[in-house]
Batch of 2 targets.
Target 1
Amino acid sequence: MATGQVRIRVPDGVKAGDVVTVRVLVTHPMEVLRMEGGKPVEKNYNFIHRMAATYNGKTVFEAETTQAVSQNPFFSFPVKVTEPGKLQIQFEDTEGRSYTGETDIKF
Amino acid sequence: MNTPIESRARRRALKTLAATGMALGGLSLGLLTPAQVLAAAPGMPLPDEAVADTLVRLFGDRKPQPAGEHIKLDAPLIAENGSVVPIRIESDLPMAADNYVKHVYIISDKNRRPLNAKFTLTPESGRLSMATNVRMAGTTDVRVIAEMSDGTLWEAKQEVKVTVGGCGG
């Protein structure tokens, strides 16, 4: 799996007003310490430090993660849906790259 | 004798040095609020600290109260691999527009850097029910602290025995 692949799963058969549990997984090494010449370097970390989910353009969930979140971070979070729409999830890592995934929630 | 360009570069270097010194001074005197410290170095690991310091840094002198039935923390009793410890949180705390769970913190007491993650929710979340995987350095308590929009703190705790620690943390 390539780094930065975002996979989102939402349940089927959603009704208006339901609280939907969204599950999202992003492929990322979440490096704790990078080795240089066989020695760990106390800088140059590379991990996802921010995640934000928007539903129809409105922020519904945010996370500030540290290096103590597992490799290939997985999150599940609730969203109350009142109308069908587009769920967009963005991840940012400490090297400034961002990874985005989106899915539609249909009724 | 310095050429004008050289002296200009030198002046700039001195200015940078002075600014850095001031910033460091601000940190060590504790003049910056916790939010500023978190935001000051985006993506840099948090400082090595004991869990008590983390709690003070995040919440000041506010003490969390035991959540009891309000938060159900689901974590394994024994985690064979400390680098992937699944944590699931269910709660019946209100999610109304005027009183809702604003932040959820996951803290592993004995990690070198105890704060695992901080989550921000909104009233639109509907119900607090979430999950993630964290790294743990060794056998220790996992705390989940929910901060309500009015500042009340609720805490749920469970010990997780870790067979093989997830490095770093």
Note: Chain B has two domains: 4-31, 48-164.
Target 2
Amino acid sequence: MIDFLQLIVSGTATGACYALAALGFTLLWQASGTINFALGEMVMLPAFIMLFFIGPAGLPLPLAFAATLLVSLLVLGLGFKRLVVDPMLKHGVIPLVIATLGLSIAMKQGVRIAFSAQVFTFPAIFSQELLSIGGARLSVSDLGTVIVAGGLVVALQTFLNRTLTGRAMQAVAQNRDAATVLGINVQRMVLYAFLINAALAATTALLVTPVYLAKFDMGDTLGLKAFYAAIIGGFNQSRGALLGGVLVGVLENLVGAYLSPGYKDGVALVLFLAVILFKPEGLLGKPEERKV
Amino acid sequence: MTRLWQAALLLFALVAIYLLPGTLKNYGVYIVTLWSVYVIAGMGLNLTVGYAGQISLGQAAFWGIGAYTTAIALKAGLPFFAALPLSAALCFGVGLLLGFPALRVQHHYLAFATLGFNVLVFLAFRNEDWLTGGTFGINNIPRPILFGWRLRAPLDFFHLTWIATVVMGALMALLLRSPWGRAFAALRDNPIRAESVGIDTTFYTLLAFAIGAAYAGVAGAFFAPLVGFIEPAPFAVTTSLSMLLMVIAGGSGRLFGPAIGAIVVVLLPEWLRFAAEWYLAIFGVLIVVMMVWLPGGLLSIPDRLRAARVLK
């Protein structure tokens, strides 16, 4: 029972990180119809930028994170939108899918050249202690990750639902033409979505890398899991990403511990396939209507 | 007259490709054979993506099912020409089973469903040791025997593969000219209109998807004896993505698209090897640049030039 609780907590922590990356994915999809297959690499890159700022540049962690956040906003937010997505949007979804694919190869291999294919350790942001609560030993870093990630999701929800800008972003996601008629600056709202995605990716890197270590291909699994999380929860619902992420993280842990480590990755997958086949709009999503 | 010229040119190209690898060393012949295998799988994917207008990210899974089926059948002593149709039929069947529920949702959801399917198949290859040998894979896969003569030499095996590619290409061309092929195109261009003129869209999309899967099965059947050793790695999602890249880069919905696209995916990385460790990074950047400037693929260049001339 106590093992079970520990598995749930650490699974939730992992899942919260998937949820952050998934949230960025759904935001981009809603704002611009971009299916971003470079999702995992967009977490990997900030991790290495942070390592650069900590190592060769010698900055303390908080400053390094701030600098990384800035670079991410510029490169993964503004740069990605202006140079890759904008020129291609008029050609439909498929060329853009292929382009993000090319981007993920380029980012991965670029980092491999710059930093080598080694595994790098990353300074911990939480203390490494274990807390004893009712006999269960829970790690501070797991709890911290859940709190930070959960807080970010709640903050983002509040921003989207309660502020004028957030509601304008939602309007753009629902109906571009109507949003334009209402005097909303559509391009600016789309840009905000890209910037938020970049910021979420940098934060995910900060939370994930101390545990999973930095390697040029760390984005492969992370991207896939975040992708599952986004679909399971609901492609067009930001809340869904959180539910999906936590479900994937917890299920992985439970299956790995109790059923078969070989199929640890398989259960989230089966859930993912079941959702696609039977409730394609996701557990919390609304069905998309067919347009003529 | 122009049609005759086109036919002559095509025949010349096919014969040239048949003869050309005779001048290459063993590794070169291997790469060209691999290209040929990719072209078969790409033609199948092109039917799904380019003609039926669905995004599939699971072609490598079917490719793997074909390769493992052939490898297991060959090891069990079945002749290659029995294993080949078996692989194709199995992939066709699995394609129907996966496509039937998945195509209810269409478009990007089919992409996600096939991606999930690919990961699942990959996990099965890796974990079901009793059947697939797990991470150790299956080795010593024999080359086919033709008229009592084993095709051990790389060049002989290439010739067999290339003939199969041409036959599969011809079958595809026939299919596309048949009323079925027209229905596929109608489906891609405007599914709602196609439905309203009485085309059973679900049936045709499903058929296109399953035939595409069967092509991947055939490609897999040639891949297994080509490499002689198979393990799960080549059948991961990344390969499905490069197969999709291949179809788009060549020009989706064009018969010769996959042949050109396979050059980009199989041969270009070989040519970029002079750039040493940079080659994959350059490859990635080239893809992005190409999608920005030429979203219709390489075969859309003549159309683009013609359009530019008309505008002047």
Note: Chain A has a mean pLDDT of 85.
